Amino acid sequence: MTFHSLIKATVVGAFCLWFSIGTAQELDETNTAETESTSTFYNNEARQRFFAFMIGGHRAFTSGDNFMGEGLEGGTGIDFRVQVYVYKYFFVGLASNATYFNVRNQELLGSYRNSRVAENYVYLGYEFLPAEDFRLGLQVSVSGDVDFKNTGFTTTDIAEQHDSARLNRYGFYLNYELAPHFMLYLDYGYNVLHTDIEAPSAYENFFSKGTYSTVGLGLVFTIGRRDLISRFLE
Q: Where in the sequence is the domain holding 197, given as residue range(s)?
């Protein structure tokens, strides 16, 4: 699945879920209104959610003795994520992101100026409630792929070049609840790419892995007041 088709599927899926569980959400809110009126919003049960949709931007920082750390300079990017709370605060999610880099060493990488990295991955995680109005989430990717699109070639007739990689991502986020179903988030991610770039044997290790970090900021919209398993058990 391409970057654009995954974004489209993510958005369509989010809206389908929104409408399909709208009635269930209204029922949940009615059933929990009395509970919330006699307890604080810090109560774990009152803060349980079913589905979250996140959109935001980030800044990338390359690192390490590899082709990204030595040859690329991190720029900005965009993030799309959806996640479902399977049981309590354990969740599974799908992410589709794009990060843009500038080439700072063409002698190492080749005669192009820019590189766009499109990341698609499935992740697992868990949320903690450290304080009122705050949520701390930890997450790790379980399956992911990356597409490099290199552009701005200066010495050839090539318009663009593509390479692929496997992604491992580890990260955490902090959400601030502006309202029960609307939040701001700040997140950090550490990305390790295992590439399929063909290179001379002397440079195989240098091009076989890339590492970079991202710091992001964005919005979160949530739906529902019960996790997925609880919806089936009750």
A: 51-231
CB atoms within 10 A of CB 151: 13
139 domain residue, yes or no: yes
Residue 26 lies in a domain: no
41 is a domain residue: no
Three-state SS annotation for the chain:
CCHHHHHHHHHHHHHHHHHHCHHHHHHHHHHHHHHHHCCCCCCCHHHCCCEEEEEEEEEEEEECCCHHHHHEEEEEEEEEEEEEEEECCEEEEEEEEEEEEEECCHHHHCCCCEEEEEEEEEEEEEEEEEECCEEEEEEEEEEEEEEEEEECCCCCCCCEEEEEEEEEEEEEEEEEEEECCEEEEEEEEEEEEEECCCCCHHHHHHHHEEEEEEEEEEEEEEECCCCHHHHHHC
Please give the tally of structural domains in the chain: 1
What are 83-126's pLDDT values in tens digits? 999 999 999 999 999 999 999 998 888 888 999 999 999 999 99
Distance of CA 181 to the CA centre of its chain: 19
Say which CATH number the domain at 222 has. Answer: 2.40.160.20
Low-confidence ranges of the chain (pLDDT < 70): 1-43, 234
| Tokens linked to 31 | 């059933």
For 49, phi then psi, to 5°, come to: -130, 165
In the chain, the amino acid numbered 107 is E
pTM: 0.81
| Ramachandran class of 115: left when φ > 0, alpha when ψ lies in -120 to 50, beta otherwise | beta
Q: Is residue 129 part of a domain?
A: yes
